[in-house]
Specification:
Order of helices and strands: HHH
Strand content: under 5%
Largest sheet: none
Region (Disordered): 1-51
Cytoplasmic side: 1-115
Oligomer: single chain
Shape: rod-shaped
Number of strands: 0
Structural class: mainly alpha
Helix content: over 70%
Protein name: Vesicle-associated membrane protein 4
Subunit structure: Identified in a complex containing STX6, STX12, VAMP4 and VTI1A. Interacts with BAIAP3; this interaction is increased in the presence of calcium.
Membrane topology: Single-pass type IV membrane protein
Amino acid sequence: MPPKFKRHLNDDDVTGSVKSERRNLLEDDSDEEEDFFLRGPSGPRFGPRNDKIKHVQNQVDEVIDVMQENITKVIERGERLDELQDKSESLSDNATAFSNRSKQLRRQMWWRGCKIKAIMALVAAILLLVIIILIVMKYRT
């Protein structure tokens, strides 16, 4: 015959079971259960399995150490990349300033060359004029 279930529970049934369960949990002080959950299984039955767990835990610890080192390296790499980006921006700014200054200097030198050529042409014209005047005066006399 199937078990009979109550369709409706009254408050005494619910609170009574909650109180008794709470009392059992608080009053029963089982160190074995706490040891099991805090330290893991022990004894001859769990020996090889416990060794496997320790081995796996050691591997997990090694992986954690490697990942922490990798994260540290990534952070350092990011810092170096930031420094490199700052240096490249500075270099780009310096290159732009150099380009502008070189264009300005090229113009100055071009004008200076033009001035020197103009002065030389003027001196040559004056010398030629003086020579012509001397020759003309020599033939007039």
